């Protein structure tokens, strides 16, 4: 009799355990796969997928960051890369509270990070323009630590690189610096004129006192021709030297909210305002692609809004752009949409 009862109890416990495991699994699954995917027809899936944003399970983000890190290490071993560590160190930012270096480049989140790191260092940054000596030197590694100390710490610190599809960044520079091709009556500022308009007009053999208007093809011609490496569109792999500096966290602007949330939790960064996303104006920059769960390969190709810029370029110019950003594409795993290469001859 006792034997039968014990057997029944074991059976009961097993049923309960199975039920618990099932519920836990279901819970985790629901975190990863959002509700909408369960009641949706395939035809509507893509539009829903592109508009609904959900928080993925941390495992998903962790796996994605590991993939980026692994790709970088592998590709760095295989390519001949320029030694740009000194250049990177001159611009890189530092947060003493977390012994964290951040390489954030113009048109790839640098303003946001100047704000974040000022916050973390206990300063009280305003909402305006932080691209002034004061706010930058508060957080620039070579100012905070000195060059020697910064270089020697780099091997034991937490290193973060902020990246973005190079073609998105390039268009963003055009929209920001050359008014997205609109004609301006006067330059945005004197500095703007001498840094951007004047060299561009000159390089295109245009009248430098004439109208301020250049289109994307002209901008691209200028950018590919000029010897000067402008930080707004110089390849990120030149700016951050990712083959010399080991970046544990490579955050993409394309998946930024998810990536930074993960980082902030992982490192227990409390003094950071995640609402801050500077320079993200619907007019000034290109709309970001949706952020979300699941296969994110689509984020690595180009947003349709951006494609239209490149479709204007003559094939030889397109080929130059691809060549110019070859390392960024390869090391970061961004892709060139096939439509842009189908007519391109190399
Ligand atoms: C350049 O533009 C200015 C202002 O529009 C004009 O006065 C000048 O004649 C132009 N120069 C040439 C060489 O076209
Ligand atoms: C860009 O400007 C150049 C020079 O004015 C012109 O020849 C070309 O057709 C323009 N390209 C586009 C796509 O508008
Ligand atoms: C996170 O940081 C806060 C404040 O800096 C601290 O009080 C807390 O103990 C930290 N938590 C962990 C898990 O380290
Ligand atoms: C963007 O710029 C256009 C004109 O260039 C203007 O009509 C529109 O109101 C602006 N939108 C925002 C959100 O500022």
Q: How would you describe what is shown here?
A:
The chain is mainly alpha-helical. Helix content is 53%, strand content 5%. It contains 18 helices and 4 strands. It has a 4-stranded mixed sheet with strand order 1-2-3-4, with helices on both faces. It is globular and about 100 Å long. The relative contact order is 0.14. The protein binds 2-acetamido-2-deoxy-beta-D-glucopyranose (4 copies). One 2-acetamido-2-deoxy-beta-D-glucopyranose binds next to loops.
What are its keywords?
Carbohydrate sulfotransferase; glycoprotein; 4-stranded mixed sheet; EC 2.8.2.-; 18 helices; carbohydrate metabolism; mainly alpha; signal-anchor; 346 residues; binds 2-acetamido-2-deoxy-beta-D-glucopyranose
Bound small molecules, by name, code or SMILES, are:
2-acetamido-2-deoxy-beta-D-glucopyranose
Spatial gap, N to C terminus: 84 Å
Structural class: mainly alpha
List low-confidence stretches.
33-40, 45-52, 278-298
Read across the widest sheet, the strand sequence of neighbours is 1-2-3-4
The share of residues in extended strands comes to: under 5%
Helical segment tally? 18
Largest sheet: 4 strands, mixed
Order of secondary-structure elements? HHHHEEHHHHEHHHHEHHHHHH
Rg, please?
A: 24 Å
Number of strands: 4
Shape: globular
Share of helical residues: 40-55%
Round the mean pLDDT to the nearest integer and report it.
83
Keywords: Carbohydrate metabolism, Glycoprotein, Golgi apparatus, Membrane, Signal-anchor, Transferase, Transmembrane, Transmembrane helix
GO molecular function, one term: sulfotransferase activity
Protein name: Carbohydrate sulfotransferase
Main location: Golgi
